[in-house]
Amino acid sequence: MPSAITLIRAAALSDVAQYAHAATAPAESRLIFLAGACPLNEDGSTAAIGNYAGQAAKAIENMLVALTASGASLQDVISTRVLVASTRREDLVAAWQVVRDTFGDHDVPSTLFGVTVLGHADQLVEIEAVAAVLDS
User: Is-above-0.85 flag for pTM?
Assistant: First the structure.
């Protein structure tokens, strides 16, 4: 199935960013807005307590389940927001590296936030995403 997404890199902007600067989807695409994927186990308990990378990995795993249920895949994601409950840059980077490695060459526009607190007990990471698909 052809991708609905075009990633845009602006030559006039720094190439230091590990993601595209913008992305587009054609008018005929179906947009999917995912709730923030949390690092929760099936029983509702928080996974990887105290581990930023571990929680990012579990959040990605849960995001992939939501994408599949929506008829989409990782390659259909058009943007992400990564929220990390920390004021330490190294904690944000630990979570980001998991996200970055997961997306590989599909380096969608992303925003990385340091936040004060997230909604679940012991939660350190949450990942929001928007996807676009071309239904046949």
Answer: yes
pLDDT by residue, tens only, the chain of 136 residues: 567 889 998 888 887 877 899 999 999 999 999 999 999 999 999 999 999 999 999 999 999 999 999 999 999 999 999 999 999 999 999 999 999 999 999 999 999 999 999 999 999 999 999 999 998 7
Q: How far apart are CA 20 and CA 10, in angstroms?
A: 8
* Alpha helical stretches, state H, the chain: 52-69, 89-103
126, 37 contact by CB (below 8 A): yes
Helices and strands in the chain: count of H runs, count of E runs = 2, 6
